[in-house]
glucan endo-1,3-beta-D-glucosidase
Amino acid sequence: QVSGHKALEDLGSLMLRVNAHAIRTYFLLKSDNTVHPPEIVRNHVTGIFFDNKVYYNTWFLDEVYAIHGIQMIPVSPINELARTSHFVEQEWNDILAHEPIVAAPNSNVSWLSLLLVNAATVDPMDSLRRLKNATMDDGLTLSWALYNAATRCRDGVVIKGEITTELEIVIVI
């Protein structure tokens, strides 16, 4: 739209959609995925994807929340093209909701902030409530997390409520 060239806009849209489809097919796996074997599909994410091998892990941490959380970075509204509400619901209900950092009432693991932004698709009010006091991931601010969580609702969900937070600004001269 910026350039005024409709063909260029259409090409960009096509490229985004093809990439999102590839991500949904090969990396973010709904239960009905037929590309990968069932023992991989049940994890909902591939983890490390080699040329001919899928390794449900990361190179930096062996925790399930990290294997899933790394697939959520960077937090951005564009993520919904690949992380559809149906996928997020399956991933959350089958795996992430049972993770100790999610189940613990006062978890201070920074990965939780990423999981909660993502989970806002499934349960927006609980995610927004918990995000207010969550330890933020190093690359995530509270305001960006709250904005993304508040705008990540699945179709037909109406949110009524109020979120308040205090902001302290320190100027060092």
